[in-house]
Amino acid sequence: MGGLRNYIIRRVISSIPTLIGISILTFTIIHLAPGGPLKFSLALRGDISPEYLLEMEKRLGLDKPIWEQYLIWLKNIITGDLGTSYIKEVPIIDLLQIYAGNTLKLMFSAQILAVLIAVPLGIISAVKQDTLIDNTARFASLFGVSMPSFWTGLMLMFLFSVKLDLLPVFGARTIGAVYDYSMAAILDEFMHMILPVTVLGLSSAALITRLVRSSMLEVLNQDYITTARAKGLKENIVVYKHALRNALLPVVTVVGMSMGFLLAGATVTETVFAWPGMGRFVVQSTFNRDYPAIMAVTMMVALMVVVTNLITDLTYGFLDPRIRFE
Amino acid sequence: MTEKTTVAPRKGVSFTMKAWKRFKRNPTVIFGASIVLIIIFTAIFAPFISPYDPKKMNYGDVYMPPNSDHLLGTDELGRDMLSRIIYGSRSSLQVGCVSVLILTVIGITVGAISGYAGGPIDNILMRITEIVMTVPSLFLLIVMVSIFKVRGLPIIMVTIGLISWPQMARVVRSEVLSIKERNYIEAANSMGASSFDILFREILPNIMAPITVMMTLRLAGAIITESSLSFLGLGDPTAITWGTMLSRGHLVIRRAWWIATFPGIAILFTTLGFNLLGDGLRDALDVRM
Question: Which end of chain B is less packed: N or C, by CB atoms within 10 Å?
Fold first, then answer.
């Protein structure tokens, strides 16, 4: 297993320049913005004297040159200090814990739903290639890819929450509900998750179905499948024992890689359902020019993507013994 | 023109001819292409087919549900929804075309140089590509678009283009890698062709198929991205776009369901058209992606 350990260490080290690159990119973009956080949002609070603004600017370090501000930020983040939100005036790490938790909850449930739908559908579609089932599945998945997820969310919300009054309209919990681990609280949370998870899960399922189908088709045309059939093996065994295992390999990659796609989808879905997650947080933070918050969320998201990519590659290696980590 | 070339297939059928033959047999391409043509037609002839002026407010007719005067109803200012949706196709196509043009130019340049040069240049370019790719593009877009004081479609189009090129770059790079070892490239090389010539005269024309497919699919993506941005309140408030209509409709959905419903259908119809076309093209041109 020495090779594996070295591989992980190497991957972690090589992701550091990427993360630094992302931080420089984001830092530069937000600091190029005309109208800094002070003028933009603190001023909205009412009568703030120019002297006070200057003082605040000094206190937040916004009077220093950009590169110096960046180095200070970098030094802080290395020591684990993500800074304080300009707007909410609480440590960002506290906010992130809540928001990242909520977003991850949404994303993982959505991804599980997506895999549960997409893998069987993709297999059936490939095995029954060019039949009515296949064509329907293909069209449905293309439909799903083409659908703007916030609109789907809006329509489902209108139907199930407004018209039929079956599900809660927004948020992660009912306002004012006591959050203990009672049955009622869990059920309340579950009801709030149904719609956002469905929206996000379906759009991801559409993507994965297409991939499962094409990778399954490719495997089914391989020589060893023909051999297996020629040996007189039952079609079920050929499909599920020989083909599926190999076809699922690229699927693992896509399920992992679609993290970024899901995060983007989560941004709009969270806005539709007022779900208190990272997507909504980043939108609000950019509106408020809350620099430390924007930086923290972006880095958090980048880190999540980097980590999932690593986990994906490792899983791939475990599933496919031909791959060696060196 | 098509007749002549099919009659005399002496030197073998050209790539375009083969592709065209396959298109005709591929219902997906036909279906997708028809939708795309309808959208283009709508965008060009918007002033002639829309029943009302899309900007004309009419306070007597606010929040009218779909009826015989206003087939898709009216919005909060009494403007005709159908006319606004017809005009909205212009913005969507503009956003799609401009941003795809930008991302294609950047993607081809980065991908071609990266694949052809190899070595440290390849390493550096792919690192940059990875950096842009790692942050979900919508996050970067939100940050970038919101920093500009002036909200406008031009800024949105350019920004989408500036951020969405990595996938194109990757596709181009891998195609260049697989093609640059072929004999005819070596032949061109030995005849003293410059790197620039080889890249743009020999390699590029041979990888147009995957580039075309990618462009079509990215176009659909760009349209969805623009509408997402508008929905989040970062759109151009003066332009007539489907996303902006949707974001207003979102707020009044209890009162007027049609304001959010129809622009969404328009977006779905358009992106479905481009996706069908891209998907069919991929099959017809035999592109593996």
Answer: N
